[in-house]
Amino acid sequence: MSELDPRFPPELEQEICLQTYFLCTTTKKPRSVHLMLVARRFHDWVAKHKYCTLQQLSHEHNIFEKLVPASSGKYYGPFVKHLMMGGAQDKDQLETLLRHCPNVVDLAIWSPHDTSLFVELLATESRSVRLRSISTNFSSLSEDDIVGPAFSKVSHLDVTNMGGKELARWTILTRLPELTHLIINEEVTPEVIRCLLKGCQHLQILVLARSPGYDLGTEIRDRRLVLLKISRYTIDDWMAFVNGTSEDIFSIAESISRAKSAGYKDCHTRWISSHRVKEDLMELGYHGNI
């Protein structure tokens, strides 16, 4: 009688589970919850995908609120990689959420509470990873907060408010060693722009995001500088970024930067709408990949 082991290799079993999960998510009546009940290992495999993004500002995307009791945060929190928090939640609720989510790499804090209140939690050694991106109000952060361990690995930064127009305040950002992409949502002087372009060692994209645009008073010819007509970095933009689509603000800015590299000089002075990038660039004569 054969003694062959009838069990699938773990890697193959996991692949079958995940492919079934992805198929479930495309149907009109998703059955992923049923799949998670097959076995504890199935539950954990699916949870890594199902709960990797937690966006609390709108009920549409707040999976935890729909499916997970608050008491289960300690179990589900470690699955979260991308976290947007704030809104009406109080300081204690936000702190509890951060403690339950030690593996977050992309964080948006859109809250009336000062970001400085959460820096210690983000810098603690108990966090298994450091942030890749953050979108928040920097006005409450000290220089030590900004250059400390909490943001030491940040490559993508969205500053909603820096807390001052002085050059010395903005110069602090040049000390972020991994910074490659930066969005600024307030008017800044040409001196600040030149300082960031020169001082941020690895900077690839610097987006000025305003609607309507404003007169810089001078032309700064640098392919990395993108003038984007947008009222605000939105929830959908953030979701597009963490989901890795090509329609997030950073990707759009990279398209405009490529047009500059191709020699379309009008891109240096024109504020381009984030909702009609292709049309605006074609008006300037650029027909390359966007």
TrEMBL record:
SUPFAM superfamilies: RNI-like. InterPro entries: LRR_dom_sf. This is Uncharacterized protein. It comes from Crepidotus variabilis.
